[in-house]
Amino acid sequence: MANVAQLPEVTGSDADDRARALAAWRDRFDPENKLDPEALPGAAAIAALVPGGHGRQFEPEAFGDLVEFIAEMPF
Hints:
Blueprint: H1 12-29, H2 39-46, E1 49-52, E2 55-58, H3 60-71
Antiparallel strand pairs: 1-2
């Protein structure tokens, strides 16, 4: 499971939901782990969670766009 709990603004059950949502998103959209590993926790910390078939999840396309945006930031 992804470690978004290390971010100060993400705690408790919200962190658990975000970690599960990130793991599920990566399983489906980044199974080979090619995306920037530093962008993923940042995106997971701020992306909206929506109701899904297996609990709360990220909206797939919007989350992917956010990961790419963060990965392209020049710092």
